[in-house]
Structures are given as structure tokens and as C-alpha cells.
Specification:
- The complex is a heterodimer.
- Chain A is of the alpha+beta class.
- Among the domains of chain A are: 77-377, PurM-like C-terminal domain (Phosphoribosyl-aminoimidazole Synthetase, Chain A, domain 2), CATH 3.90.650.10; 572-741, Phosphoribosyl-aminoimidazole Synthetase, Chain A, domain 2 (Alpha-Beta Complex), CATH 3.90.650.
- Chain A is built from 27 helices and 28 strands.
- In chain A, helix 7 (109-125) runs parallel beside helix 11 and helix 20 packs parallel to helix 21 (512-532).
- Residues 1-6, 8-12 and 395-401 of chain A have low confidence and may be disordered.
- Chain B is an alpha/beta fold.
- In chain B, the strands form two sheets. Chain B has a nine-stranded mixed sheet with strand order 2-1-3-4-11-10-9-6-7, with helices on both faces. In chain B, strands 5-8 form a two-stranded antiparallel sheet.
- Classes of the chains: A alpha+beta, B alpha/beta.
- Chain A binds chain B through residues 160, 164-167, 250-253, 255-256, 343-344, 425, 428-437, 439-440, 442, 451, 453, 567-569, 738-739, 741, and chain B through 21-22, 24-25, 27-28, 31-32, 35, 61-63, 65-68, 119, 121-125, 151, 153, 155, 215, 217-218, 220-225.
């Protein structure tokens, strides 16, 4: 098919309301008609609706996303492919991507989360990599609400059900709560893969004459229009009505698909491949053709189907899970198809690559769609207004006294029991976090560490961080702080960050205040990434996160991967009376803190802006101290401030401590957040070396106490602020009950 | 890397690791046997019918056939199980780990069944098990009563059998491992799934077929937290009669 003539066999003329129901604006519909030189038919409109959705086209966000630094010496693939790729040495590279599955998880928590895992795994697989780890970053309403607990249990069950079965360990993550997430929880999953540099695959449909091999599960009616669904606001009825937009996962098929695809890639016959995920067959074929500057023809009659009577647009746009589209030379199709069939999967040639630059679809002998690939894959950017929100008038009680200061010990117990700080064992013990025998540091620490048997003694560290509380008060500072915190988590295990990816969760971008917040957050991410020299190799934008009660907190989440050049075993546990030090600028504020939420019941506007100049020095100092074993244990100060970080250190070591904090105003010194700071436990004979290292990096270091007995005692501002037994700390910290989850 | 261990007559022990569709610990077992212990390993595809020439066989963990129907139920009917049965009858050491244990139970090569965990959820964490008998090829190199740290990762690991069978298992020295605390005491809180009589692993009457829920291959290198599981594999080496 080389002609640009109007397609024959047009099924119906699409009335304008169809364009509207698939999410196209009148201007977009006009642009499509102008590009085609005629009115698009119904099948074409539906394809545009999906490919021009925010989810596929980033039409609101891409101008802003250009601010993110995406290049660096190790970057082999930046944004634009299915996942970023970074060299880690020894001829190996990591593939890295994070994605949201927020709306599906709100409607059907188990399947929504499960298919989120499946999709991100196949994005990594599409780069030729074996998926080796998952991270999950979750946000929900307060867990006191029974419906929220049910949602959380469903999401955790879905991640476990899929991830455990396919044999990819879930090694870390985070959990935060806020009433703003009650109707629209956030389920962000990151996947890491490992590939030989020479084996990196691309999602390109080239050369002309090559065929498109459909491989995997059959196509059904599930997930029709899922990408468009993700690009709209959830309303009250969504929970009932939108279930057909949620895909159903089959992890067994997913596992077979991974193994078959890795075997197929090993034959050297695969020229390009992509997951048929969001936007289904249409999106995979069009995007691969678009990247290569080619065209494709598809024959829908050859698509393996699970049910009869599916009209062309359903076959094109179905988001049925566990399907890949491969580009192979004609003579390679049969041997590759047998690789899949041997594992019980379908494999059929469903189209071919052309040189005409058109996306042509046949069904039942007729041409049902025929549009230029470039028109389909290059949605015009939507101009979006940005307006700084007008801060609400300062409440009278916000500047003045807060009444009597609450008991610091009680506050500490309260903070330890928050979902943000409390032990997540009830969650991560439901995930297989050890399969693939790589997990050297298990969930529950600052960062997970994987050893690489393929390239010893290399290790990889992973962390995911976000802070909606802080971003709600200061999107720039909160986003930058998330980057610094991820890097701090990596420093605690001696890892140097090599790449990050992001998942940007916001409300509707048409709201100028939301868009301003989004742009500010991206600016914060970009500046922090530049300050650390860490490229952003990919990302995901999730807009329209809001429910009947309002917007979610602006929540950029970052996942970061770091390299440990010589991974070794942990040293000896520190002995009684080992010194405890605070490393980093003694900065912090209570605005946007966990303390503000728990004690004052509101965020404050006074936040500490991250110190992008000083943080890299502190991070380098701690990283080297850990590598040189000057620190027996390092832990970054984040949610709940120094007091919580010290308590967590005690719980990790199962030891008490005596701490004396310097004079400062009120609870700020105990519970203030912000700044790149660490609690370290030092072997006494290494304290001198550690102090020298800190001086070398011009990083403040103060001894604030030592390990002692079975109680945590903290003196602050000259008085005994905390005196609690380890047992009481542990009881508060293990508040997330297994029965609830 | 460890030097290759050899069988009684100086001939290397040849291990077979079976991959069913949905197995996901097969590569881990191959890694430990080949890279950590320096053993020759043959990867066995589930469609193979003969396992001639193998000196020891491992059925690894995972979700064979997606655990559809019941964990291990479909794999128990796979073609390779004929070869496993024949080898077991010849006295070849056979080790079923996690899903492999479930498959051996479903195939009738081991008595009893593995039910859904008492709390109905998947559980992944370290456990301690006490060695109850050293008469199997996988515990021959261990000390009775000693304690091993190995992780579990399963949703269906609650061992159960009829009361008479549980008694016969105990009397016939067929209980190989029991969940215990770090000091070797069998305590309810040390039992991760509610297994009857705290049973973590059993063997057939002859002792050559062993199934257990904990993962020895995940605890075979100290970098991963424990090297105790390695002893199950090294126990086999001098025990195998080659030829």
C-alpha cells in the first residue's frame, strides 16, 4: 500500500463527538483532518485518541521535560526509547524505567498493580535486558480508613502476585499517606534490567521488507482505551464503569514471554521489539515505525485473538497483557515463532515494514486506516498556562506560639508509627525479594543492594524517593530534595549514582496552578540532577490524579541506581559505646515535615531549601566513609528528622544510645527535616580517620553520642527530651500490622 | 571459586536441574552448583523423558504452570516426571525445593500435601531449621540437631498429612527439617506457615528423595546473608555412587 488516496472500505464516518469521547480537542481533530487532507474515519480517530493521549504523547509535559539533563558519559540510551540504558563497566549496562499505574489501581487494585508490574518489566525486556529487580513507590489515604486498607492490600497483593510469579525480586520501595491520595492512590513501579552492551535492543521498525512478528498471549477485549483512561480524571462512577479499561495480567504467560524473548534475542535475528502495552498493537507498530522513519502495514486478520467479533479498533488498541511485537527479516520469522510456540505462546506475522512512511491497517480485505506515521506519532504540543498559586493568607496561629510543646518522647513514638517511618516488613515479606540470588542488602535499609554474579565484584544499589508533603509547600525544593534523598540512600551503602528516572504524579495539567507546580518540580529535579551529575535517562508523567475531594499532593518520585565497585560483606557490628556522629550541614525546618503533619495537623510554608552546592560534598564524604569502612552503619536523616533517624539506627542494630543535641529552638533540632544529613555509627579507632575525611570534603561532622545499653536517651536544648526503651520503640515502629495487609 | 568436587571414584557428580514452564529458581540452582561449587550441571527441559546419566536431580522453586489448579499439580504430570520417578526408584538423590517440593508431593513421590500458608499470604523471610535426620544424601554431611538459616518464599508451604502419616514420618525418620528459632527450639512463632509438626522438609522411606520449603540455593553464599544452604549440596558429593 503506497497510495495516499482516501482509504477504501471506510466503515463509518466519524461524527465529531467520537473525537471528543476519545479525548481529542476540536483543534486536534482539525489538525488531524488537515494532516490527512480529509476527515479521519472512526478507526483512525480512535488510534489518534490513544496515540495523542498524554500517556503516549506527553503533549502537555514534553516542553518542560526538556529541562532534565539526560546525557552523561555512561548514558547509552536516554529518553525516547522504552527505557534508559547506562553502562556500568565490564561490558554490562543497566536498563531502568519507572511507571505509574495509578488509575487502574484505584479501580481494580490487584489487577491494576499486577499489570503495572508486567508492563514495566516488558519495557525493560524490550531493550534486550533481563529484568533483575523491582521497586514500588506507593501513596494512599490514611490507613485508618477501611477502604484504603483494602486498596493497599490489593495493590501489595497484585505486585506480589505478578512479581513473585515471574521471578523478578521486589527489593525496595516506599510508602506515604495523605488524605489527598484517598481517591487516587499512587502506584509507581520501577524496574531494573541487566544487558551486555553489545546486546542492547531498540524499538525500531527497519528495514523495509522486514516483517512484524506478534508474540505472546492472544488479544482480547481487556484494557480497551487504557492509555486514554490514564489521561483523564477519575470520577465517582469510575470504580464501577471503568473496569473494562483495566487489563488482567497472567504472570505465567509473562514469565514464559520473558524467557522466550530473551532466547529470541539471543539468536541475533531480532531487529527491533516493543511491548504491546499502552495503546496496544497500534501504538507499538506506529512508534517503532516512527523512530525508524518508516511505514508499517498491519493485517488484523492474522492477529491471534481470544474472542470473536472484535471490531478493528479493538484489535488495534486492546491492551491485553503479555504481548510483544518483534521486527525480523522474513526468513527469521519461522525460527523465532517456534521459540515462542515451544513455550506455549502464540506467534504470528501480522504485518511488515514499508518505506512509504504510512500506517496502513487491513481488516477483512479492506483498508480500515491509512495515515502518515509522523502525524500519528507526533501529537502537537498543547499550550498550557502556568500560574503560581496564591498562597492562602497566613493563619494567625502559624507565626505565633503553638501552645505547650508536646512531649518529645511521645512525638517520637507517634512518628515511628507513621506508615512513612514504620517497618514495611508486613509489605515486603509478601514480595519475593531474594529470587535471582542477587539481593545482598534486603528491603528495610536505606537502599537495596544487588550483587552481580555476571560481573563480580560489582554491586548495584537502588532507591526510590518522593516527598509530596514538601512539594505541596515548595515544589522546587521538594523535588530537588527527593533527588538528594535518593542519592543519600545510595551513599549509605557506598554507591555512586549513575542514573535516575522519574515518575511525575500531578493533577490535571489544564489547571494553570497545577502546571506551574509541575514545571517548578521538574526544575527542581533538573537542578538537583545537574548538581549531582546524574543523568535522567527516562521517565513517566501521570497527570489527572485527582478525585472528587480534590487534587493529590504534587508528587514527583525518583528512582536512582548506583554502582558499588567492590561489593563486600558487612563488617563486624559496632561495639558498645561506639561513637554516633551527625554528618552534614546542621540544617532543617519543620515546614512540610512529618512532625508538622502529625503534631500540628497541617503543613507549614517554611521549608528548608536544599543546599545543592554543599550536598554533593556531603554525599561524597559519606560514600567514601562507607567504602573505607570508617562507618559501621550510615543512615540518612529524612522523615522525622534526627530523632527518628537515631531511633531507626538503634532499631537496626538492636542497641540503645545516648545522644546529646546542641542548643536550638524547640523541636526543630529533634524533628526538623531537610538538608543532606546522616547519622553514622563509627568504630572508635576509626573516628580520627573519619574526621580527617570530613575535613577534606569541608563537611561538618559532630559527635552527638554513643551506643549504650537498651534505651534511647536524647538530651536536647539542655533537657532530657527522650528516654525510651528499645522495646517501646520497636512496638511503635512495628505498627503496620500484617493482618491489615 | 571452589574447585570441582568429585564423586567416590574421582568422577564428577553430574547434576540435573529441571526447568518447567514457570520455574524461576532454576537459574539460581544452576548458579550455585556450577559457579559456587564447581559442579557439572545439565539443564533439563520439562519435555525430556529420560534422565539417564545424572547423579543427582534438583526440582527448583518457582511457579510451574503459574501454580494454576494447585501448586505443582500440573508439573507433576509433565513428561520429565517419568524420568524423575525412574531415577528416584534407582536411588538417585532427588531434591525438591519449594515448588519442587510441591511437585514431588503432587506426584506422590513424597507423602502429604502443601497447603496455603495459615495467614493466606506469600511470605519471604529468613527461617531457621533444625536438622532432624542425617540419613538422606542431602543431610549426610550435617550434624543432627544442628540449625541452618535459610529463607522461605512461598504462599503454599503449610505441610500437612493425615495423623497416621505424620506419626509414620516421625517414627520412620522421614522428617528431615523442622522450623525452629535460632537456638534450635521448635516454637510456634518460628513456623512461617503453620506447617504440621513444624515440618519444613521430609524424605521418602528410602531417604533419597527430599523435599523442603526453604531455599538452600539462596543461602549458599555468605554475601547473601548465609552459606548454610550450601551444605545440602555438598553433602551429596561423597554420597553418590557413580556408575
Amino acid at each position: 500500500m503506497t497510495s495516499a488516496a482516501p482509504p477504501r472500505g471506510v466503515i463509518e464516518r466519524a461524527p465529531p463527538p467520537l473525537a471528543e469521547t476519545v479525548g481529542l480537542s476540536p483543534a486536534e481533530h482539525a489538525a488531524i483532518a488537515a494532516g490527512l487532507g480529509r476527515a479521519p474515519n472512526a478507526v483512525e480517530i480512535r488510534c489518534f485518541g490513544v496515540l495523542w493521549s498524554e500517556h503516549c504523547a506527553y503533549k502537555h509535559s514534553r516542553q518542560v521535560l526538556r529541562r532534565l539533563p539526560s546525557t552523561g558519559p555512561g548514558v547509552l540510551q536516554g529518553p525516547g526509547e522504552n527505557a534508559g540504558v547506562v553502562a556500568i563497566g565490564g561490558g554490562w549496562a543497566v536498563v531502568f524505567k519507572m511507571e505509574s499505574h495509578n488509575h487502574p489501581s484505584a479501580v481494580d487494585p490487584y489487577n491494576g498493580a499486577a499489570t503495572g508490574v508486567g508492563g514495566i518489566i516488558r519495557d525493560v525486556l524490550a531493550m534486550g535486558a533481563r529484568p533483575i529487580a523491582l521497586l514500588d513507590s506507593l501513596r494512599f489515604g490514611p490507613l485508618t480508613d477501611a477502604r484504603t486498607r483494602r486498596l493497599l492490600a490489593g495493590v501489595v497483593g497484585g505486585i506480589a502476585g505478578y512479581g513473585n510469579s515471574i521471578g523478578v525480586p521486589t527489593v525496595g520501595g516506599e510508602l506515604a499517606v495523605d488524605p489527598a491520595y484517598r481517591d487516587n492512590p499512587l502506584v509507581n513501579v520501577a524496574c531494573l534490567g541487566l544487558v551486555r552492551v553489545e546486546d542492547i535492543a531498540r524499538a525500531r521498525a527497519d528495514p523495509p521488507g522486514a516483517v512484524l512478528l506478534y508474540a505472546g498471549a492472544r488479544t482480547g477485549r481487556d484494557g480497551i482505551g487504557g492509555a486514554a483512561f490514564a489521561s483523564d480524571v477519575l470520577d465517582k462512577a469510575a470504580e464501577q464503569e471503568d473496569r473494562s479499561a483495566v487489563q488482567i495480567g497472567d504472570p505465567f504467560a509473562g514469565k514464559c514471554l520473558i524467557e522466550a524473548t530473551l532466547e529470541a534475542l539471543g539468536t541475533g535475528r531480532v531487529l527491533g521489539l516493543q511491548d504491546m502495552g499502552a495503546g496496544g498493537l497500534a501504538c507499538a507498530a506506529a512508534e517503532m515505525a516512527g523512530r525508524a522513519g518508516r511505514g508499517v502495514t498491519l493485517d488484523l486478520d492474522r492477529v491471534p485473538r481470544r474472542e470473536r467479533g472484535m471490531p478493528p479498533h479493538e484489535v488495534l488498541l486492546s491492551e491485553s497483557q503479555e504481548r510483544m511485537l518483534l521486527v525480523v527479516l522474513p526468513e527469521g520469522a519461522s525460527p523465532l515463532a517456534s521459540v515462542y510456540r515451544r513455550r506455549g505462546l502464540d506467534a504470528e506475522v501480522v504485518g511488515r515494514v514499508t518505506s512509504d512512511g504510512r500506517f496502513t491497517v487491513r481488516s477483512g480485505g479492506a483498508i480500515v486506516a491509512d495515515v502518515p506515521v509522523t502525524l500519528l506519532t507526533q501529537a502537537p504540543a498543547r499550550r498550557t498556562a502556568a500560574r503560581r498559586p496564591v498562597p492562602p493568607p497566613r493563619a494567625a496561629d502559624e507565626s505565633g506560639a503553638d501552645g505547650p510543646a508536646p512531649d518529645a518522647g511521645e512525638v517520637l513514638l507517634q512518628l515511628l508509627a507513621t506508615p512513612e517511618v514504620a517497618s514495611k516488613a508486613a509489605i515486603y515479606e509478601q514480595y519475593d525479594h531474594m529470587v535471582q540470588v542477587r539481593t545482598a542488602v534486603r528491603p528495610g535499609r536505606d537502599a537495596a543492594v544487588l550483587r552481580l554474579p555476571e560481573a563480580p565484584p560489582l554491586g548495584l544499589a537502588l532507591a526510590a524517593d518522593g516527598n509530596g508533603r514538601w512539594c505541596a509547600v515548595d515544589p522546587y525544593g521538594g523535588a530537588a530534595a527527593s533527588v538528594l534523598e535518593a542519592a543519600a540512600n545510595l551513599a549509605c551503602v557506598g554507591a555512586e549514582p549513575v542514573a535516575m528516572t522519574d515518575c511525575l504524579n500531578f493533577a490535571r495539567p489544564e489547571d494553570p496552578e497545577v502546571f506551574w507546580t509541575f514545571a517548578q518540580a521538574v526544575e527542581g529535579l533538573a537542578d538537583a540532577a545537574r548538581a549531582l551529575g546524574v543523568p535522567v535517562v527516562g521517565g513517566n508523567v501521570s497527570f489527572y490524579n485527582e478525585g472528587p475531594a480534590g487534587h493529590i499532593l504534587p508528587t514527583p518520585v525518583v528512582a536512582m541506581v548506583g554502582v558499588i565497585p567492590h561489593l563486600g560483606e558487612d563488617g563486624h557490628p559496632p561495639e558498645e559505646s561506639a561513637p554516633i556522629v551527625l554528618i552534614g550541614e546542621p540544617a532543617g525546618a519543620l515546614g512540610g515535615s512529618l512532625y508538622a503533619r502529625e503534631v500540628w495537623d497541617r503543613a507549614r510554608r517554611t521549608c528548608h531549601r536544599p543546599d545543592l552546592e554543599g550536598a554533593p560534598r556531603t554525599l561524597a564524604c559519606v560514600r567514601q566513609a562507607v567504602r573505607r569502612r570508617l562507618l559501621a552503619l550510615a543512615h540518612d536523616v529524612s522523615d522525622g528528622g534526627v530523632a527518628v533517624a537515631v531511633a531507626e539506627t538503634c532499631l537496626a542494630l538492636n542497641r540503645g544510645a545516648t545522644i546529646i543535641l546542641p542548643e536550638a529552638s524547640g523541636d526543630m533540632v529533634l524533628f526538623g527535616e531537610g538538608g543532606t544529613r546522616f547519622i553514622g555509627v563509627v568504630a572508635p579507632e576509626r573516628l580520627f580517620d573519619l574526621e580527617a575525611l570530613a575535613r577534606e570534603h569541608a563537611v561538618p561532622l559532630a559527635q552527638i553520642g554513643h551506643l549504650e545499653g537498651r534505651r534511647l536517651r536524647i538530651r536536647a536544648s539542655g533537657r532530657a527530651a527522650v528516654d525510651l526503651s528499645l522495646r517501646r520503640l520497636r512496638r511503635a515502629w512495628t505498627s503496620l500490622s500484617r493482618e491489615d495487609l | 571459586m571452589a574447585a570441582a568436587h568429585h564423586g567416590r571414584r574421582g568422577v564428577p557428580v553430574i547434576w540435573g536441574v529441571v526447568t518447567f514452564p514457570g520455574s524461576n529458581c532454576d537459574r539460581d540452582c544452576v548458579h550455585v552448583l556450577r559457579e559456587v561449587l564447581g559442579q557439572p550441571v545439565r539443564a533439563v527441559w520439562y519435555e525430556e523423558r529420560s534422565l539417564e546419566g545424572l547423579d543427582a536431580i534438583v526440582l527448583p522453586g518457582g511457579f510451574s504452570y503459574g501454580d494454576y489448579l494447585r501448586a505443582g499439580a500440573i508439573a507433576a504430570t509433565a513428561p520429565v516426571m517419568r524420568g524423575v520417578r525412574d531415577a528416584a526408584a534407582r536411588g538417585v538423590p532427588v531434591l525438591g525445593i519449594c515448588n519442587g517440593f510441591q511437585i514431588l508431593a503432587e506426584a506422590g513421590l513424597l507423602p502429604g500435601a502443601l497447603l496455603r500458608n495459615r495467614n493466606m499470604r506469600f511470605v519471604c523471610r529468613d527461617t531457621w531449621v533444625r536438622v532432624e535426620t542425617t540419613r538422606t544424601p542431602f543431610t549426610r554431611g550435617l550434624v543432627a540437631g544442628s540449625v541452618l538459616r535459610m529463607p522461605v518464599a512461598h504462599a503454599e508451604g503449610r505441610y500437612t498429612a493425615a495423623p497416621g502419616m505424620l506419626r509414620r514420618l516421625a517414627e520412620g525418620a522421614q522428617v528431615v527439617f523442622r522450623y525452629c528459632d535460632a537456638a534450635g527450639r521448635v516454637r510456634p512463632e518460628a513456623n512461617p506457615n503453620g506447617a504440621a509438626a513444624a515440618i519444613a522438609g521430609i524424605c521418602n522411606p528410602a531417604g533419597n528423595v527430599v523435599g523442603l520449603m526453604p531455599h538452600p540455593e539462596r543461602s549458599a553464599e555468605s554475601l547473601l546473608g548465609s552459606a548454610d544452604g550450601r551444605l545440602l549440596f555438598t553433602s551429596v558429593l561423597p554420597a553418590v555412587v557413580v556408575g
